[in-house]
Amino acid sequence: MKWKSVDERPLKYGRYLALSKNKKIYICEYEIFNDTWWDEYFSQKPAEVTHWMELPGLTKE
User: Fold this and answer.
1) CB-based contacts of 18, cutoff 8 Å, min separation 6
2) I need a labelling partner for 8 at 20 to 30 A (CA). Which of 30, 35, 43, 61 fits?
């Protein structure tokens, strides 16, 4: 999987891996209706996301 710019928005509401402006990776929720990213702690202000990707699936070994 490759990182996508926030200019290329996800097509649905959900949780994604997100790279923030401070170069940290978070699991963020994307709200498609108001085009907003919220960090995993659901803080009072939206996360400043620069890139995102789908959450990778977990596999059993």
Assistant:
1) 25, 26, 27, 28, 37, 39, 47, 49, 51, 52
2) 43
pLDDT digit string, tens, across residues 15-26: 999 998 888 888
Q: Give dist(CA 58, CA 48) in Å, integer.
A: 27
CA atoms within 13 A on the CB side of 53: 8
Q: Are 49 and 27 in contact (CB under 8 A)?
A: no
The answer for residues whose C-beta is within 8 angstroms of residue 16's C-beta and 6 or more apart is: 10, 27, 28, 29, 30, 52, 53, 54, 55
User: What does pTM read for this prediction?
Assistant: 0.78
